[in-house]
Design a protein that fits this description.
The complex is a heterodimer of chains A (110) and B (114). Chain A is mainly β. Chain A contains no helices and eleven strands. In chain A, a hairpin with a 5-residue loop joins β9 and β10. The termini of chain A are far apart. With 114 residues, chain B is an all-beta fold. Chain B is built from no helices and eleven strands. In chain B, the strands form two sheets. In chain B, strands 2, 4, 5, 6, 9, 10 and 11 form a seven-stranded mixed β-sheet that branches. Chain B has a four-stranded antiparallel β-sheet with strand order 1-3-8-7, with no helix packed on it. The model of chain B has no long low-confidence stretch (mean pLDDT 93). Classes of the chains: A mainly beta (110), B mainly beta (114).
């Protein structure tokens, strides 16, 4: 079965620093989704990537999907305390369901 | 901006009791989902629902679980006889048609089974 591995599992950065979170799949990805989850809350959609080599940005967050469509990265530029949370990558499993990685917990120190 | 809502936010129940978790998906969405997240673990898919029937379900979604769209707006998850291991955060999500359509999640219902 397909698995999503995220690294690092947790990350502590000083405010203003850049950071990257990685998501690696054992098989080709058909739709890669990034969500953010605050502790005990719901998942907030960030971005979706479908094509190999695709890159999308929203505010200070950039997500990329590699050409082989097996790895994605999420990059945050000039991190702020509002970026703190758990970042989850998700991919399409069956017809419509998503399966998720274990998440990366980001702490931003002011 | 439209959003998925869920009630209650927290439900405490005794083992063996039935619980119903409620969701109001985004109004023009046609696919509805339930996921769960046991504390400290991954978010796991339970079931998807389209055109008034289950379109896909996971191994977790056994005979103790059922889903229903009782009217034009609500989508419910029923657990018939709760077990301790059903304690988790339950998320409802909805999406439009098509494989690329994004799933939008509700804030979740925290279910605690005592």
């Amino acid at each position: 079965s397909q698995e999503l591995e995220q690294s690092p599992q947790s990350l502590i950065v000083q405010e203003g620093k850049n950071l990257t979170i990685n998501c690696t799949s054992s098989k080709t990805l058909y739709g890669l989704y990034w969500y953010k989850q605050k502790y005990g809350e719901g998942l907030i959609f960030l971005m979706m990537l479908q094509k190999g080599g695709e890159e999308k940005s929203h505010e200070k967050i950039t997500a990329k999907l590699d050409e082989k469509k097996q790895q994605s990265s999420l990059h945050i530029t000039a991190s702020q305390p509002s970026h703190a949370g758990i970042y989850l990558c998700g991919a399409r499993g069956g017809a419509n369901n998503l399966f998720f990685g274990t998440g990366t917990r980001l702490t931003v120190i002011p | 901006e439209p959003e998925v809502t869920q009630t209650p936010s927290h439900q405490v129940t005794q083992m063996g009791q039935e619980v119903i978790l409620r969701c109001v998906p985004i109004s023009n969405h046609l696919y509805f989902y339930w996921y769960r997240q046991i504390l400290g673990q991954k978010v796991e898919f339970l079931v998807s629902f389209y055109n008034n029937e289950i379109s896909e379900k996971s191994e977790i979604f056994d005979d103790q679980f059922s889903v229903e769209r009782p009217d034009g707006s609500n989508f419910t998850l029923k657990i018939r006889s709760t077990k301790l291991e059903d304690s988790a955060m339950y998320f409802c999500a909805s999406s439009g048609l098509g494989p690329g359509n994004t799933q939008y999640f509700g804030p979740g219902t925290r279910l605690t089974v005592l």
